[in-house]
């Protein structure tokens, strides 16, 4: 077997037959298999099974009854089951044209890389298939910030968010991956320095069905980024920061409805304390839940701690409200945050940009992943 094509699917029934037809039309004499790793809640598995029975090449279906880690988890599952050493990952909605697979394979044939990434943002690539201007802006901005956070590991990759790539499975340590949500390529590239090549491609329109991207996936991505870069503590800080913003928004809304500000502050705090706990449970400490007893016990401890903290905070806040104008403080906070981000991006991408002529780093240099650090890596 020369190639395993891994396709994660979530309710992609109407795309299956067309995807297999276009993959089949591409075969250039190499032996390959297609593995669908499916988390669907509709009749997609039956459609895949029927298509597999009629297919001229091997098509395998793994339906996960207990989907773990979403799209990223599905891809890792595919790596584990793949029969070939080289694995191609692509979406099941034909936004990744099967006609481009041959170019990825030819690039890998040169034998000097561990991964070939199909990039929308490399010269000659095209991201117009993204749903709208907002999606495009979010994609561009998150790519920029992500590259700034891993200036060396992602130096050779213009599109760490793509879901279309060809990987030498032996170059990664599958057990070290902590997939969460959509961005599995980022997880792979950030863990270990790989030799990366890129092939530009045009991100197409969806063939049928609807995108599964969502705001929740966006939050998951931020947590993934924080975990990869700075370990669990920063993911914790991120969730705390989001909670603080939610707290202020709720308080502002209640005050507008005529609620007295101290009462509004109490309600906003209780709501965010509960929300924070849920985010910690399902995002930051998701991997530790099974070993830390009952959820309601964790909740009671978290709730009690946060309320003690809030009780200490309230008198301090009332002093601030009496003596300072909140809008100006808000404005100052926003400009400070914005300046921080810009300063960070500029230093990482411009001031400390890797030299163009620098020799390529040694291949497959494993990076230490300290226990209990939530998979902290050193981008050095
Ligand atoms: N097994 C499984 N489980 N598959 C999933 C899940 C899940 O929970 N969620 C989504 N998928 C599958 C979809 O069925 C599709 O085949 C593929 O993952 C991508 O999902 P889309 O819903 O098409 O999302 P997208 O088009 O917004 O995202 C694509 O573009 C991003 C770049 O903008 C994907 O390629 C992402 O990987 C990529 O990062
Ligand atoms: Mn898609």
Quick recap of the structure?
This protein has 380 residues and is α/β, with parallel strands linked by helices. Helices cover 49% and strands 10% of the residues. The chain has helices spanning 16-24, 44-53, 70-81, 101-109, 133-149, 184-191, 215-230, 232-256, 261-284, 295-323, 326-351; strands at residues 3-9, 32-38, 59-63, 86-89, 115-119, 165-168, 196-200.
How are the SSEs placed, and which strands pair?
Layout: E1 3-9, H1 16-24, E2 32-38, H2 44-53, E3 59-63, H3 70-81, E4 86-89, H4 101-109, E5 115-119, H5 133-149, E6 165-168, H6 184-191, E7 196-200, H7 215-230, H8 232-256, H9 261-284, H10 295-323, H11 326-351
Parallel strand pairs: 1-2, 1-4, 2-3, 5-7
Antiparallel strand pairs: 4-6, 5-6
This protein binds guanosine-5'-diphosphate-alpha-D-mannose (GDD) and manganese (II) ion.
Compute the number of structural domains.
2
Indicate the mean pLDDT: 83
Residue share in β-strands: 5-15%
Question: If helices are DSSP runs of H or I spanning 4 or more residues, what is the number of helices?
Answer: 11
Architecture per CATH nomenclature, i.e. the level-2 architecture of the largest domain: Alpha-Beta Complex
Order of neighbouring strands in the sheet with most strands: 3-2-1-4-6-5-7
Q: Which ligands occur here?
A: guanosine-5'-diphosphate-alpha-D-mannose, manganese (II) ion
Instruction: Tell me the CATH superfamily of the largest domain.
Output: Spore Coat Polysaccharide Biosynthesis Protein SpsA, Chain A
Helix content: 40-55%
Through-space gap between termini:
36 Å
């Amino acid at each position: 077997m020369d190639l395993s094509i891994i396709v994660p699917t979530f309710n992609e029934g109407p795309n299956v037959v067309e995807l297999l037809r276009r993959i089949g039309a591409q075969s250039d004499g190499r032996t390959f298999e297609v593995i669908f790793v499916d988390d669907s809640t509709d009749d997609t598995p039956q459609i895949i099974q029927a298509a597999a029975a009629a297919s001229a090449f091997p098509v395998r279906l793994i339906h996960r009854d207990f989907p773990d880690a979403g799209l990223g988890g599905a891809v890792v599952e595919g790596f584990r089951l793949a029969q070939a050493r080289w694995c191609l990952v692509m979406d099941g909605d034909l936004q990744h044209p099967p006609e481009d697979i041959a170019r990825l394979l030819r690039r890998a044939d040169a034998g000097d890389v561990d991964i070939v990434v199909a990039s929308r943002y490399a010269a000659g690539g095209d991201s117009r298939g993204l749903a709208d201007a907002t999606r495009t802006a979010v994609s561009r901005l998150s790519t920029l910030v992500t590259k700034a956070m891993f200036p060396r590991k992602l130096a050779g990759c213009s599109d760490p968010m793509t879901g279309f790539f060809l990987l030498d499975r032996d170059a990664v340590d599958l057990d070290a991956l902590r997939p969460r949500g959509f961005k599995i390529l980022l997880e792979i590239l950030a863990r270990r320095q790989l030799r990366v090549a890129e092939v530009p491609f045009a991100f197409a329109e969806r063939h049928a069905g609807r995108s599964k991207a969502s705001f929740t996936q966006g939050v998951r991505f931020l947590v993934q980024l924080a975990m990869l870069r700075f370990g669990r503590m920063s993911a914790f800080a991120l969730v705390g920061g989001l909670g603080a913003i939610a707290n202020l928004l709720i308080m502002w809304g209640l005050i507008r409805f005529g609620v007295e500000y101290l009462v509004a502050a109490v309600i906003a705090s209780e709501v965010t304390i509960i929300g924070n706990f849920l985010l910690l449970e399902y995002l930051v400490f998701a991997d530790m839940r099974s070993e830390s007893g009952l959820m309601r016990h964790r909740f009671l401890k978290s709730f009690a701690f946060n309320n003690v903290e809030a009780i200490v905070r309230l008198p301090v806040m009332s002093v601030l409200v009496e003596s300072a104008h909140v809008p100006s403080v808000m404005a100052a906070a926003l400009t400070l945050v914005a300046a921080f981000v810009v300063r960070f991006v500029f230093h990482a991408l411009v001031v400390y940009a890797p030299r163009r002529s620098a020799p390529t780093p040694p291949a497959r240099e494993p990076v230490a992943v300290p226990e209990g650090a939530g998979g902290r890596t050193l981008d050095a």
